[in-house]
Amino acid sequence: MGLENIYTELIAEESRNPENRHHLASPTVTLKGRNPSCGDEITLELEVENGVVKDASFTGVGCAISQASTSMMIDLIKGESVDEAKRLSEMFLGMIKGDITDDDALEDLGDAIALKNISNLPARVKCAVLSWHTLDNALEEKKE
């Protein structure tokens, strides 16, 4: 898949998913994630109750990759257990690092597999992983 296709697909995906970009009424954890090298900045809000990510949203600014990656992540983790959210995060980060390359093994990532080829674009990797690292930190912070 060419570079333009990746960007076009991600931008289109993001523009179809504005429902993840808002403030939650009662988040139990809120954490900012920043990528100083390119200026991406997100605030992730999670509502975690009884070990389940009941709701999640984000606000912030950034490139198409960081925004699309964040939106896809939220679609994946909403309604999942904290453990499953962590597992998905590990899987996504493993895919981006190139440690997990088998598409069947990555099936659980759904649309986020579209970001797989970002691993070939070192300058964009930080954009793709920003929200996932922020999620990991937020879940660590939230440990009950």
UniProtKB/TrEMBL annotation:
One GO process term, biological-process aspect: iron-sulfur cluster assembly
Gene3D superfamilies noted in UniProt: 3.90.1010.10
InterPro entries listed in its UniProt record: NIF_FeS_clus_asmbl_NifU_N (IPR002871)
Family: Belongs to the NifU family.
Domain (NIF system FeS cluster assembly NifU N-terminal) ranges: 7-127
NCBIfam families linked: SUF_scaf_2 (TIGR01994)
Protein name, as recorded: Nitrogen fixation protein NifU
GO molecular function: iron ion binding; iron-sulfur cluster binding
Pfam families attached to this UniProt entry: NifU_N
